[in-house]
Amino acid sequence: MSEMQEFIVDTTNKILKKHVAKELIDASEQGEWSGNLWDVLVESGLVSVGIDEDFGGTGGDSTDAFAILRLAGKYAAPVPIFETIIAGWLLAEQKVETTYEPTSFILDLDNDLTGDEFTLKQVPWGRHVTQVVYIGKINNQYKLAVLPTEKAQVENNQNIAGEPLDNLRFKGLNLEELTQFEVERDSISEKVLNYAVLGKLAMMAGAMEQVLDLSVFYANERQQFGRSIGRFQAVQHHLAALASETAVVLAALNYAIVAFEEGSMKEELSLAKMKISEAAGTVAGISHQLHGAIGMTHEHQLHQVTRRLWAWREDFGNEAHWAKKLAKAYIEDNELSLWDFITNEKRGNVHAGSTI
Amino acid sequence: MSEMQEFIVDTTNKILKKHVAKELIDASEQGEWSGNLWDVLVESGLVSVGIDEDFGGTGGDSTDAFAILRLAGKYAAPVPIFETIIAGWLLAEQKVETTYEPTSFILDLDNDLTGDEFTLKQVPWGRHVTQVVYIGKINNQYKLAVLPTEKAQVENNQNIAGEPLDNLRFKGLNLEELTQFEVERDSISEKVLNYAVLGKLAMMAGAMEQVLDLSVFYANERQQFGRSIGRFQAVQHHLAALASETAVVLAALNYAIVAFEEGSMKEELSLAKMKISEAAGTVAGISHQLHGAIGMTHEHQLHQVTRRLWAWREDFGNEAHWAKKLAKAYIEDNELSLWDFITNEKRGNVHAGSTI
Amino acid sequence: MKNLDLPVVKFTPEQNKFRMEVRNYLKSERESGAFETTADSWMTSYSPEFSKKLGSQGLIGMTWPKQYGGQERSAIDRYIVTEELLAIGAPVAAHWFADRQSGPLFLKFGTDEQKDFFLPKIAKGECFFSIGLSEPNSGSDLASIQTRAEKVEGGWLVNGMKIWTSGAHHSHYMITLCRTSPKDEKNRHAGMSQLVIDLSADGVTVQPIQFLTGEHHFNEVFMDNVFVPDNRLIGEVGNGWKQGMAELAYERSGPERILSTFPLLQEAVEHLKEQNDVSALAQALQLVARMWSLRNMSIGVAQMLEEGEDVSLTASLVKDLGTKFEQAVAETVRLLIDTTPSVTSEKLIDRLMAESVLHGPGFTLRGGTTEILRGIVAKGVLAQ
Amino acid sequence: MKNLDLPVVKFTPEQNKFRMEVRNYLKSERESGAFETTADSWMTSYSPEFSKKLGSQGLIGMTWPKQYGGQERSAIDRYIVTEELLAIGAPVAAHWFADRQSGPLFLKFGTDEQKDFFLPKIAKGECFFSIGLSEPNSGSDLASIQTRAEKVEGGWLVNGMKIWTSGAHHSHYMITLCRTSPKDEKNRHAGMSQLVIDLSADGVTVQPIQFLTGEHHFNEVFMDNVFVPDNRLIGEVGNGWKQGMAELAYERSGPERILSTFPLLQEAVEHLKEQNDVSALAQALQLVARMWSLRNMSIGVAQMLEEGEDVSLTASLVKDLGTKFEQAVAETVRLLIDTTPSVTSEKLIDRLMAESVLHGPGFTLRGGTTEILRGIVAKGVLAQ
């Protein structure tokens, strides 16, 4: 980790530790906006990392941003930091200055906006963002466009983690007047998925770290039959499995991030998504078995991370979805034997720039 | 269980307990013929149960035969009793008197015997049987035929359990002169599979009972860190899982047998095969984990049953094979909702005869 | 090792006919809007109105003597009704414990007065019970409970606290395990008794424990000098542990240990059938094979219970396997069908998936954790 | 909780080139009939000729000083070679332990004379070692070993018995953990020492323990007044336990904990690719995703070992996950492709399946059972 990155991680950690209490997450799930937390993150420049200062960003690279998102996942920070960072990257690439406003994005290639009434379905944090970066068709042309939410009617909906996933009904918006850019379907889709999947994977890895921490704490703390439950073999097995899964998830994540940073990422994204989405359910399940009844209560913190794991593992397609995608590519585009495929390293001599 | 069946089970149990020692199985896997055991089984009439006395059988019904096969599986009896019983049923249905000779059968619908040189591949117990009931084409017509093995050249091969699975090269056999019967492809195939799958499932259930017995014995016997390993939580979990799987396998088997006996069997066969083949691997794996290193030795008895479970679970198609078959039928032939399908009981008012 | 074979139960034509009647009744109720299908409905879907309807149809306390409002039907008939209710995900949480545990407990250990007083009301679907067992820090070690009942003139004075009490905020009574004499370390299970506590009595306070979804099913029940008259003691003083354990056998092997997530499986199978997706349907049907086998087992145990045989081992086996199966449904289905699990979704499969995932961890915890069950089973098999 | 991140290792272009050289060499060896691909080859596929060839190619003892016949290459280079050998299922059992454990042990604790004497021969692929640890009834509790070495004039007199000793019937030496002073219940791991026993010495008897398949890999080694000269003691008297445990770290996280069944996976993937079976291939690739992640982890641990960091926790994690993965390969593949597993089959996939299934149970037993590893890990994480 570079010194710069250590500093960013340290700062982020301090901010989130201080500002994200269980009650804040509860309130957010009840519909409140975590305004204070958001303001602090904005002021610290954390919602615009990976964007060059020329476009109003904070600088740093995408690896720094993924490190921030990993912590956001760990603390279950109830703000659209993931969406804002990635929307910011997409806009900066179109040379749009970043605004520091809470921003969402949605990739919906089958959608075609026409006329002056249309709906965006399942927009993450829809009710709380001031703009949505939409990637889909407008009048039958693929566009990346910025939709201000001011005039949108919000239909509340939420994912399994209680995060907003709202339908936005737009009315009276002039599609011609939007900030918008023509894009090529496949390349924009790949780009958005690269950012989004990696970002979510980082958040999932962070959430798993938190699950492990909570489990270790509980196993040390909780007494039964006169001794701490960490001394029971079954509980030890649970802890070992949690530690194993977390470590292997980090190994998947870190390799994918390095490949991305170096501009050589190919199947690493699929493989990391496949492994990490699979691990999410394992980790959540084991931690609940370990925590017993207390972990099933709203009062305990565990569910705030496990529900996020259950939600996030499905985002942008779960492991089975990506496995099928990879299988198709493997059959169609790949001439290598499996071992050649696994050890095929084009990395090490590629050094693409990583600041966006 | 009827009194008659209790008597049969009791007799079989006594015979197998007395005659099937580990050394006998070892010798069989080395290629020896378990002649003594076979003779006792023949004399007791156990290889011809379920065949009417009119055709030289011992009487009794198929349920009795499945009870015998369950014990044969439990003791890993190294003789072609499964093959002989089922071949006997198939012949009796064609009014061929049963011979008490060790007999194998093979269902190979894609094979077409012509001329005077042909090969039967992977014939169970091929080297030790005097005849094979062949179900497949002869000169492009579906037939059930009896092939004497006298003139066949044997190419030794074996399954993962060390049971013979030999290629028989026939030469100079006059196909015209064989005892043979025209059969209808689909109905004969279904019939043979019904008998064969149920019989093998009974053997697998018996093998699982044996695995559980061996495991319980070992857990009580083996000492570590100064106490019997049955007192360790991890070992207890293993034992509980073994008992659970064995019990649920018996529940699957017994329901399928009753349905068969009543002539109402439909998807019960697939469901039982799917569950029991799945359980076989679980049970074998857990028992080895429980036994540790000793279970990996040839000296210990465990592998004689676990290797059979690993072999038998693949016989006549494994669980995935049957699941696909059932899925196709479910899509094509079934109008019921899942719950209607599961609870669809035509039984209870059907009383088909069961003696073959 | 004891034989693990269970009886094979064949439903009679009459039973199958009865099943179809119940099924059609429930379908028409659902169509008329009386309820919506949910996963895990027996734990979470509460409707006193619907319970009353079931009572009026004779579907509660079905096996009990007619003299107490029952129908004197067989355990298998009751099994059929239970299955149908769960398979359609009907709202049965209100009367569940009264029907499953409290009624049978009264029949076995209760006085005539208790039977006369409670059973007809339960059977009508008008009287709901909770079970007061766990306490803070008792964890899996129920012998360590501290709620105590002190003998006073004409009754008992109860002080203490129960936790994880399902439905106490709706129920009329709670069957409460209390210490009636001090703990004896040599016989840790002695000295406990079961008392029926009126949840509206003075000194009783019910406080919600929010479920992780924010839903309210569980409670803490505080008892501060609650007076319980002598005629509300069940069975014998000091015999509470044994009575309570017998009660638990009823709850281990029923269809509710297999079918909690069945509505999701059904929805998934219909979807895959429509899609003609043989490969994915095959994987879903592998779950059906597990379920079919488990169901055979569970019906076999029901039959043994009916015949008064000891099912402590086999019932534990069913629960261990069944609850794992219930969890496996969601984890398998999500790999076969793309969903966005959400309790607020308008898509049925998304909602059932959310319910199944969120409630999933509880399946292997409630009614004896996996660890406890496996301990019981292991001791059972090792001893044989 | 300590951070579980491991270093990300990027192979350099030189390393990738080296990998291709090794791969091409092995492929040409296989084509020329020098060996057949097998699953679990590092444990079961024994060929002194092939070991010698590898030695002559500089592929044994690669990281050791040139002065002792090594190549002074990096741990990552060695990692690459190990991977390539396992992926192709080459017969490497003969020299495996000498290369992996005994050599590094001598380098760390051995005398100059020992290094001079043993290392060059090992590196040439001409000197094979076994590891004498387990004893009958020692089970997982190695502190309870009873083989004892008594000090005599000019050396030690060893009496006792070792069990599960891989390859002792082929090996020249066995590094033997012995008691050199009586057991102290307060410090159970004290008083043990490591001696190099010449397996051709007087008093040594090697008896086969047949593997469940009938194959001969394991042995019992009896030592009856075996004289071991002073210069065959490794390291310090009484320090044998510590030295031995350090040795174990080398064996926990290597590619052999991931790749034992890789030949089967490769064969299956090729088959499914040919069949254009997207759905089944997707399931096989889910295994590949696990393997890729594990491999990243294993390489990270190798890097830490190279840097002299403590890997006791992380190496145990790799082994626990890796061996489970190795087992999962056969259990998954069999559901995707119809096979008739048979060691005598002419069909490669049937044979690889048989080998993988039959050896499978051993993966999670050898080198520390799942139970032991999980205990180590749990204690590790609880203490942090």
UniProtKB/TrEMBL annotation, chains A, B:
SUPFAM superfamilies: Acyl-CoA dehydrogenase C-terminal domain-like, Acyl-CoA dehydrogenase NM domain-like. Keywords: FAD, Flavoprotein, Oxidoreductase. The keyword Amino-acid biosynthesis does not apply. Residues 192-309 form the Acyl-CoA dehydrogenase/oxidase C-terminal domain. It holds the Pfam family Acyl-CoA_dh_1. It comes from the Bacteria. Residues 2-80 form the Acyl-CoA dehydrogenase/oxidase N-terminal domain. Its cofactor is FAD. This is Acyl-CoA dehydrogenase.
From TrEMBL, chains C, D:
Residues 131-226 form the Acyl-CoA oxidase/dehydrogenase middle domain. Pfam families: Acyl-CoA_dh_M, Acyl-CoA_dh_N. Residues 12-126 form the Acyl-CoA dehydrogenase/oxidase N-terminal domain. GO terms for cellular component: plasma membrane. Keywords: FAD, Flavoprotein, Oxidoreductase. Gene3D superfamilies: Acyl-CoA dehydrogenase/oxidase, N-terminal domain, Butyryl-CoA Dehydrogenase, subunit A, domain 2, Butyryl-CoA Dehydrogenase, subunit A, domain 3. Its cofactor is FAD. InterPro entries: Acyl-CoA_DH_CS, Acyl-CoA_Oxase/DH_mid-dom, Acyl-CoA_Oxase/DH_mid-dom_sf, AcylCoA_DH/ox_N, AcylCoA_DH/ox_N_sf, AcylCoA_DH/oxidase_NM_dom_sf, Mycobact_Acyl-CoA_DH. It comes from the Bacteria. One of its GO terms (molecular function) is flavin adenine dinucleotide binding. The keyword Oxidoreductase applies. The keyword Endoplasmic reticulum does not apply. This is Acyl-CoA dehydrogenase.
